[in-house]
Amino acid sequence: xxxxxxxxxxxxxxxAEALRKRDAKSEITLVSEEHHPLYSRVLLPHYLKGKVPRExxxxxxxxxxxxxxxxxxxxxxxxxxxxxNQFVGLTDGRELPYDRLLVATGGEVRTVDAxxxxxxxxxxxxDADHLAQILCEQPADARAxxxxxxxxxxxxLNLFSHFRLPTTLFHRGAHFWTRSxxxxxxxxxxxxxxERGVELHxxxxxxxxxxxxxxxxxxxxxxxxxxxxxxxxxxxxxDFSWLKAAGVDVGAGVRxxxxxxxxxxxxxxxxxxxxxFDEIVGRHIQAGNWMNAMSxxxxxxxxxxxxxxxxxxxSSYATNALGLEIIFVGDTLKDAADEVRVLGSVHALGVTQxxxxxxxxxxxxxxxxNQDRAAITKAIQEQKTAxxxxxx
Length: 392
Ligand SMILES: Cc1cc2nc3c(=O)[nH]c(=O)nc-3n(C[C@H](O)[C@H](O)[C@H](O)COP(=O)(O)OP(=O)(O)OC[C@H]3O[C@@H](n4cnc5c(N)ncnc54)[C@H](O)[C@@H]3O)c2cc1C
Known about the structure:
By secondary structure, this protein is of the alpha/beta class. The protein has three domains: about 180 residues, FAD/NAD(P)-binding domain, CATH 3.50.50.60; about 110 residues, 3-Layer(bba) Sandwich (FAD/NAD(P)-binding domain); about 70 residues, FAD/NAD-linked reductase, C-terminal dimerisation domain (Enolase-like, domain 1), CATH 3.30.390. The protein has nine helices and 24 strands. The protein has a five-stranded parallel beta sheet with strand order 3-2-1-7-17. The chain has a five-stranded parallel beta sheet with strand order 8-15-9-10-11, covered by helices on one side. Helix 1 runs parallel beside helix 8. The radius of gyration is 22 Å and the shape is globular. About 40% of the residues are buried. The structure holds flavin-adenine dinucleotide (FAD). Flavin-adenine dinucleotide binds next to helix 1, strand 2, helix 2, helix 8 and strand 20.
């Protein structure tokens, strides 16, 4: 059997590892656009704050791939899929035949157009190395700006606070995570951040950057703001073109059934890229978190090698914004819920939202209310009805 895995992040690498554990003989090729062996994106902020040395960010050594007899192609992307003849085309011109193909290509950051010194992103180790450099170069009176109102914006807030940089944050929505949070939860985050000195501008559009070769400021729909350092955290948008051209069904991600199978025979998807049918919550969702990516990588390996079990996991993403704990569990899209119950308040310094669809608990967002996590996760897992589920 020839397995080709596209994407050397945690989903792809875990799949390769799990395949090799199950099968000593099959050919496994891992195509990785990045040059580094597997590293933890979760640890990148810790590396930037100097809490984790750079070498500890790596989860695999270069030698590991050879030891596992995994052909590891680095600095090469997959750009073509021929599903009829079952091969993929690579950017170096090679064509790789496959019996089973796993797409584990994650997300690609959305960028702002101008390329000025001082503009940063935070997805890859190369991004982090670049950011580490520009953080060192900042003058004593440096000002930082963040675009975005999601997880990466939180990482930037914590990072810039660590370096004591006065920070202004702009985002398009009325509050953080507008697709998931209601007003009370949004207000709690805003209050927490502004009380800690963040200048927060909501409902603001990015217009332009200022500066010749170095960033001096940003222009938004509210006017000009001085800035030496910009953190861009406006989401990801994967490049689906080569998959679409081959007839793979894509929505916000690569669509799969509960077995991580796409509409094309022998082509599977796992990790951030997969918009999989989640049998627990009863609809297609895309879960952008580490535990989901790792578990799907392992599950895809099992399914591709013949153990066809549906993928089941209630995954979560926990972060914090300047000390305020924020946790997303399960399906947290407001528009897909019939009802969103709100517990707590800004006044009580904690808000939990419970997402209910067809009478069942399908998701939760907890802001400053960590204590609700186990109960909500269990309710989703056990497909409890909202009336069976009580937390105070
Ligand atoms: C700074 C940061 C902090 C985070 N913190 C947390 C956290 O605290 N908790 C949590 O749960 N999650 C966290 N996450 C999210 C988590 O890291 C991701 O959900 C996870 O890494 C997704 O893994 P993946 O393998 O699906 O995709 P990725 O890690 O994105 O890997 C995909 C790989 O595929 C490569 N690729 C793309 N296209 C091609 C192609 N055509 N050909 C070949 N290769 C290709 C990409 O270059 C990339 O290397 C964080 C993410 C970041 C960036």
